[in-house]
TrEMBL record:
Recorded superkingdom: Bacteria
One MF term in the entry's GO annotations: 2,4-dienoyl-CoA reductase (NADPH) activity
Sorted UniProt keywords: NADP, Oxidoreductase
Coiled-coil intervals: none
Protein name: 2,4-dienoyl-CoA reductase
Protein EC: 1.3.1.34
Acetylation in keyword set: no
Enzyme class: oxidoreductase
């Protein structure tokens, strides 16, 4: 049986790396990509320690369409057709909107929304050329894509765009490729680095923790388990959906 291959952007750390480890443990060929070669090699040392599947890394910037196309070509050269993609690469920072520079806005939009489009589009072209059906795309979003949130205007706008792209392609590419396109909305997740960028004060971290009905932050491994389940044949009828894995955090916005 031919192994399936998955491409995970932003796969060198946090949730991306956890997903890469999970898929490789399950016997998939895994390709991780990112901008930082040193981080990619550190992640590869962990992936290579798993005695299942195969793994490779590709250094590129999701903002560069041609770079995304070349990254996919390198993966295809190594493993053949690519069956799944996780658009995990992201960028964010907290800033009041009036203090936001045009460059700050453009940077986040370019990574999150345009980067997701770039990788998704080159994969769609690949599926078309290979006449491959039944592929899977998982996009990483956030609850402020539909709820909004202060200080994260570019990320909220970009994630809203990604969520709508997810649903649009679930219909369009469902018909065209028999493909499934879904999204995950993680809540506060430990050991990802993202929380440290958004929240620096210990009291604020504890306030967020209290606002999670289950009383804790999630783990990258829990996100990885969900991503694997969503990509598996068990979920071959799941399409155009967004699953929140956040302990109920998005439902509870009132501080105690």
């Amino acid at each position: 049986m031919n192994m399936k291959t998955i491409w995970i952007t932003g796969g060198s750390s946090g949730m991306g790396k956890a997903m890469a480890l999970k898929f490789k443990q399950e016997g998939w060929n895994v390709a991780i990509s990112g901008r930082n070669e040193e981080r990619l090699q550190e992640a590869m040392s962990e992936l290579n320690a798993i005695n299942a599947g195969q793994a490779m890394s590709v250094q590129h910037d999701v903002r560069d369409y041609e770079g995304c196309a070349q990254a996919l070509a390198d993966i295809v050269s190594a493993y053949g057709p690519v069956h799944a993609l996780v658009n995990n690469a992201a960028g964010n920072f907290v800033c009041p909107t009036l203090d936001l520079s045009p460059n700050g806005w453009a940077s986040v939009i370019d990574i999150v929304l345009n980067g997701t489009f770039n990788c998704t589009h080159v994969l769609g072209k690949h599926w078309e050329a290979e006449e491959l059906r039944g592929g899977c795309i998982i996009n990483m979003v956030a609850s402020y894509a539909w709820q909004a949130g202060p200080g994260v205007a570019p990320s909220a706008a970009a994630k809203a765009g990604v969520l709508n792209l997810t649903r649009t392609l679930a219909v369009e590419w469902g018909y065209q490729f028999g493909a499934r396109v879904n999204a995950i909305s993680p809540g506060p997740i430990e050991r990802t680095g993202g929380a440290e960028k958004l929240v620096s004060h210990v009291k604020e971290v504890e306030r967020i923790r209290r606002n999670v009905p289950l009383g804790r932050f999630g783990t990258p491994e829990e996100i990885a388990d969900l991503a694997y389940w969503m990509a598996s044949d068990e979920m071959r009828y799941l399409n155009g959906d967004c699953i929140s894995l956040d302990g109920g955090h998005w439902l509870n916005k009132h501080p105690f």
